[in-house]
Amino acid sequence: MTSASPVISAQGLRLTLGSGAAAVEILRGIDLHVPKGQKVALLGPSGSGKSSLMAVLSGLERATSGKLEVAGADFAAMD
């Protein structure tokens, strides 16, 4: 593993869809650090949150909580 600064850095990402009794926690406490140039594969069974994580990392979905930085910039501030 390289010590380069991560191009994607996620800390404690959570994604909850719905509210109240219908709330479903999709992602819970995801930590991910991807250095520039590194290839990453997301593997897991159906329903494990792979597509939901990619939706959050790409900005299609907003994380319920946690911190996401892309190229050193706070993703929440990129509107």
Structure characterization notes:
By secondary structure, the protein is mainly beta. Helix content is 11%, strand content 41%. It has one helix and four strands; from the N terminus they run E-E-H-E-E. Strand 1 and strand 2 (24-35) form a beta hairpin. The radius of gyration is 13 Å and the shape is globular.
Contiguous uncertain segments of 5+ residues: none
The backbone outline, from C-alpha atoms, is globular
> Radius of gyration, rounded?
13 Å
CATH first level: which class? Alpha Beta
The number of E-state strands comes to 4
Share of helix, binned: 10-25%
Keywords summarizing the entry:
4-stranded antiparallel β-sheet; 1 helix; mainly beta; Rossmann fold
Task: Give me the secondary-structure topology.
Layout: E1 6-17, E2 24-35, H1 50-58, E3 65-70, E4 73-74
Antiparallel strand pairs: 1-2, 1-3, 3-4
Q: How would you concisely characterize the structure shown here?
A:
The chain has 79 residues and is mainly beta.
